Amino acid sequence: MNSSQSTTGSKKRKIKAESDTTVTNKNESSDSEDDIALSKRRKITPLKKEDVKKPLKKTTKVKKEEDEKPATKRKKAPTKVKEEKVSKRKKKVEEEVEVFRWWDNEKEDDSVKWTTLEHQGPYFPPEYVSHGIKMKYKGEPIDLVPECEEIANFFAQVIGTDWAENPTFRKNFFKDFQKVLKKKMPGCPIKKFEDCDFTPIAEYFAEQKEKRKAMTKEEKEVIKKEKQEIENKYGWALLDGRKEKVGNFRIEPPGLFRGRGEHPKTGTLKRRVYPENVTINIGENATVPPPPEGHKWGKIIHDNTVTWLAMWKENVNDSFKYVWLAAGSSLKGQSDFKKFEKARELKKHIDQIRAEYTLELKDKLMATRQRATALYFIDKLALRAGNEKGDDLADTVGCCSLRYEHVTLEPPNRVIFDFLGKDSIRYYNEVEVSKQVYKNIEIFKRPPKKEGDMLFDRLNTTILNKHLQKSMKGLTAKVFRTFNASYTFQEELKKTVKNSTINEKLLAYNRANRQVAILCNHQRSVSKNHSDQLKRIQDKILTSKYQRYLVSKEMLEIDPTLKKKKPEYGRLSRGITKEFIKNYEEKELEKKKAKLEKDNEKRKAEGKELLTLKDLEEKKRQPTLERLEKQYDTLSKRIKAQQLLLIDKDENKTTALGTSKINYIDPRISAAWCYKYNVPIEKIFNKSLRNKFKWAVEVDENFVF
């Protein structure tokens, strides 16, 4: 392994892979027991000889209140609870699955991916069973055979969503629906979409949804158990004798294709996949998994130079689908590691490459000048290289496939890009470029070129990548995107303030991530409930401020002189209206009544006298000034954290942070940042990402991309 990876040294962190059966579903943003447990496990891992030169720097400081008190003052009950927690934590660590540490033994030759491979093949969705609910045509119920009824179901299930109102979606759906109707029901009267009424079926599915919500705990447990049995059978493979998790082992059921953006095939029928359509890849000496009864596999191969377990071709875009090992598997981890190491390697060559293409911007040969200009855009703007698309696919382009109309010039040196990128997401960007690049674009757009003509008519991705190979082995245009994303992220993280709070550091982290998302054009539309989310956070802020106001009033009752020192005490914050106070008091009263009812049920069972609200108030302990001061400080910190969350939510409304964090940013940068700024890694990597990037968390806090 490359020495620059820094997997040894005084700051080396080690963690074990997390077992699905041992990690509880806790809020990632809270300081949960799991958060503390993982931080402690990372610190107490035994060191190698070379690691003992310096003591490990503590990254998480955890000290419980009872530890600060003398042993004689400890109460028995809390001690017992603490011992139980420690015991559970210890048991949890012992139960965790030992990880295959492939990063300690990297192979020189990676052409052979595995020696032995065993698995159970993919899991097929169950065959369709008719429910008998009839759609209507021109107001009359229509009897449909099961094959046609199933397709009618697909549209009924999107009623009430934007898809149902999308003209392209409706057109493609009805076109495929009619094809099946003509084949299975030749005399069917359904001819026009406008005369179709899928409401009865939609209402049926709405009822089924409500029934699922109303299921008893026992019924839910039965379903959960069935899912777990499927997971246990199909969700694991044996790779070179090691148990590895399979990722997408379920074959997608039939339905209507959605697509992203303005995809021309949205609404097209996705046909059911049968075993006859599937190719199985398995070890030569392994037992071939039996296909579902009455079927046989399309093909069985034993190719150890690829990492997929099964493959088939889907009908909508005529593309191949694969079953892979999970994101946290050794093969996927090695692939990710090599991708980021290649991007780090580019850092050594980037200055030379930039110097070369800058000179070539003025080259006399037009093909060379086009190549240099395209490379300038790929490097500076993180544009995708772009490949030719067929007429049946969405009109998405990249740098090499830009057309005349996608680029507009605005003197003296501004270039405006406007085109559909990957997944039909619009790329719009106005940038100032060098005078030579601006001049080149003017030349590339000269008559007789017109709309529809290629901007770079003497360039494609094959030519570009072949040229890049001369500068660095394995270099492609795609590597620039990973390099620029990771490097930008690392530079942005330098703005983190060392002595700030955890929430302020996380805001700095997300802002750095957002800059990468903007660079890579990772956009998303504002969610429908975005304003509701902001409103809920704002309500929490006002509630905390009002609670702080009440606490300050109590403090002034005990010591009125505090008003001179702290003028804000006893003063209502802006936004707290009479209506807000009334609603708050009503909610608090409801909480007290609920608590009283619960307490009285217990007292009634014990034969004790029932209490009233007045009894609860009299029973309430009068707080000390010291205790109130602590409450005031706690509420102030909570308000600040909520305000930061509000800013973060609002700033992130149109950017998709996950794509860049998972695919384009070297995870070692994030891990090193966590250790350097004492941020628990659980705050930025959830359980899934910690499992995916377990190779990356063993990094020195001074790691540099």
CATH architecture of the largest domain: Beta Complex
Helix segment tally = 22
Q: Are there runs of 5+ residues with pLDDT below 50, and where? A: 1-83, 85-97
CATH class of the largest domain: Mainly Beta
CATH topological fold name of the largest domain: DNA Topoisomerase I, domain 2
Structural class: alpha+beta
What value does the average pLDDT take? Answer: 84
Number of strands: 15
- Strand arrangement within the widest β-sheet reads 10-9-11-12
| Fraction in beta strands | 5-15%
CATH homologous group name of the largest domain: DNA Topoisomerase I, domain 2
How many strands, which pairing sense, and closed or not: the largest β-sheet?
4 strands, mixed
Q: Compute the separation of the termini in Å.
A: 15 Å
Radius of gyration: 31 Å
GO biological process, one term: DNA topological change
EC number: 5.6.2.1
Coiled coil: 206-233, 577-645
Keywords: Coiled coil, DNA-binding, Isomerase, Topoisomerase
Q: Gist?
A:
The chain starts with 32 loop residues before the first helix and ends in a 13-residue tail after the last helix.
What does this structure look like?
The longest helix has 31 residues, at 330-360. The chain has helices at residues 33-44, 65-68, 76-95, 146-156, 162-165, 167-184, 199-213, 217-234, 330-360, 366-381, 435-444, 461-468, 477-493, 502-519, 530-558, 562-565, 578-605, 613-619, 625-651, 657-663, 667-676, 687-692, and strands at residues 117-118, 135-137, 140-142, 196-197, 236-239, 242-245, 255-256, 269-270, 279-281, 299-301, 310-313, 320-323, 407-410, 414-420, 426-432. 45% of the residues lie in helices and 8% in strands. The protein folds into four domains: 3-104, no CATH class; 110-326, Beta Complex (DNA Topoisomerase I, domain 2), CATH 2.170.11.10; 331-476, Alpha-Beta Complex (Topoisomerase I, Chain A, domain 3), CATH 3.90.15.10; 530-592 and 624-651. Strands 10-9-11-12 form a four-stranded mixed beta sheet, with no helix packed on it. Strands 1-5-6 form a three-stranded antiparallel beta sheet. Strands 3-2-4 form a three-stranded antiparallel beta sheet. By secondary structure, it is of the alpha+beta class. It contains 22 helices and 15 strands. Helix 9 (330-360) packs across helix 10. Residues 1-83 and 85-97 have low confidence and may be disordered.
